[in-house]
Amino acid sequence: MPTSASAAPAETAAPATTAATSASASASASAHGLTDVTASDSTLRRFLHGLPGVDTVGLEARAASLGTRSIKTTAKAYALDLAISMVDLTTLEGADTPGKVRALGAKAVRPDPTDRTAPATAAVCVYPDMVPTAKEAVAGSGVKVASVATAFPAGRASLAVKLADVREAVTAGADEVDMVIDRGAFLAGHYMKVYDEITAVREACGTSARLKVIFETGELSTYDNIRRASWLGMLAGADFIKTSTGKVAVNATPSNTLLMLEAVRDFRAQTGVQIGVKPAGGIRTAKDAIKFLVLVNETAGEDWLDNHWFRFGASSLLNDLLMQRQKLATGRYSGPDYVTVD
After folding, report:
1. Residue 278 falls in the annotated catalytic set
2. Which is the catalytic residue, given 107, 162, 212, 242?
3. Is 96 a catalytic residue?
4. pTM, entire model
5. Which of 88, 165, 175, 178 is catalytic?
6. 178 classed as catalytic
């Protein structure tokens, strides 16, 4: 089994907080001595490379084992509604139009127009220029508007350009910002550069937007790198750590998500600060989504079974969740026109 030891030197675990703002993260980290690990590039490197190595065989075996859990009837109905409420309904295409974003917003607010008991999704996720349109589409509903930023998806831009991207989104009213890390800098071992960029983006988000930090796990090559990136993001003030952009060959997997769930669990045990997790890309069916919910429950615990702490970055997933929900209620699948085509 993968190691579950706390990645930092053990101290008495603090009780969980109810919010994960950068201010609380900073204060808690300071109280537990974690501020020292970001004092310089050398201390940060020493900390990240001192994290326990990942047992690849154990990690993948546990992820596979948890994926075999069977959920029936009432529990399945609960899981389907929970999964719907955790979806960040996403469109990130060059061909996005205001009309498409308005339609997406309407679907997020009322996923099933024939059934008012179906929950709304957590958010809609769009490019910064589409934030005003998305805000108008979901106004008064409680559905959040998330915006990708920092030269998404490659992140190949100067810090000034990245911060301008973030400020545009926040000024337009984004409730959440999904940033990409500089994978080139991370893989070259320039951890402090990555840390400084995340903290600068956190500052640009201000107090009005939560920050999701995307690692693009498919490009990080090793599980050890994913563990290091998770701790680096949390130390820098991430409110969420996110697997992927959905734009590369390998996106969210049970194994990399399990590893990140272990990281947020251990970070809370060390600091008292709770951080969210968002797997994104490649999760297309209700069966897949339920497997991820089992991972959450069995690894991080029930405290993360809420859309404030766990999200699915997806577009087509919602349709299958709705189809399965309708099948559970009526005993049959609806026709092809039951759900909209995204």
Report:
1. yes
2. 242
3. no
4. 0.89
5. 178
6. yes
